[in-house]
Amino acid sequence: xxxxxxxxxxxPASDLPHLLALLRVPKLGNSKAxxxxxxxxxxxxxxxxxxxxxxxxxCTDELCTLLGRSDRAAAAADLSWLNADENRDFIAFDDPxxxxxxxxxxxxxxxxxxxxxxxxxxxxxxAIVGARAASxxxxxxxxxxxxxxxxxxxxxxxxxxxxIDAAAHRAALDADGATIAVCGNGLDxxxxxxxxxxxxxxxxxxxxxxEFAPGTAPKPEHFPRRNRVISGLSLGVLxxxxxxxxxxxxxxxxxxxxxxxxxxxxGSIHNPLARGCHALIRDGAKLTETVDDxxxxxxxxxxxxxxxxxxxxxxxxxxxxxxxARILAELGHESVALDQLVARLQVPxxxxxxxxxxxxxxGIVTAEPGERFMLLQRREN
Length: 381
Description:
Rossmann fold, 9-stranded mixed β-sheet, alpha/beta, 18 helices, 3-stranded antiparallel β-sheet, 381 residues
């Protein structure tokens, strides 16, 4: 993957129509498409290579026929959709903007159609999922966890479904936080229709994404694929109310397979929507009662740096970059000189400068005169 991602820096914009056409080739699959792109260097070169090269890459005769009949008209329509709004984009798997968490999973999407603030993709995310027919208490729990997590600097990711998903998305926006909705259909339509207003707000203040091209209808087989993206983007998945047979449990199992943390809220033994969460807890999910249960689980992995805001409220600032995490571990009340950080961390000064700049932009670190740095928020002891 590192070589593939680096290659994107030289991928010409003129290759996008061919890449969109490659995305629409039936039965190609993400892994085979990535292999062809890596071998040929561009989507245009993949199509120009011809059946002999395609077969050598493992394509069947049927797939070679499909590659030779690629739907260029549909790809042109996709490009027109993208160009019609500056807030729309397509981020290929080898683009540096492609979320690194998602790139780690098997069968990562070849690319993502986006509508909104695509920079959110590379921010630390926790997924909140659960029952569509959520109880009143379940929806309130989703809102409370979403509010507390965004106040800790976390982006909330979910699937735009009714119930728990919608409650989490809405609460994140109401708390002036960030949220990402992963869709099981093309972004030119909203599903379910009852969430149209919510989807518009997410597009304006957060991000809608899909691996499915515009015009793609929401089909049942799309939602397990959507669920693997939800878990793949996230550091962990929090399940709030789920029946024993539900899409939320599929998301949780995918998260576990992907090496993500799984959190579940317990409930009444009389509530059928608690049984899925209880099953997850029996299988090793973290029993979760407060946001601290999530924060403290991720701190040992150096994915959360605990800090205390000036007003005294405890927060958990999620940091996925290892250099940033090591820098934060060195900083405290007193400023630390840049050359001291270089000596302590044994990291090239260019990498430390880049990490410090990112932490400054996130409002976590402040620069002092003489190339010295300190926490803007006092680190929790």
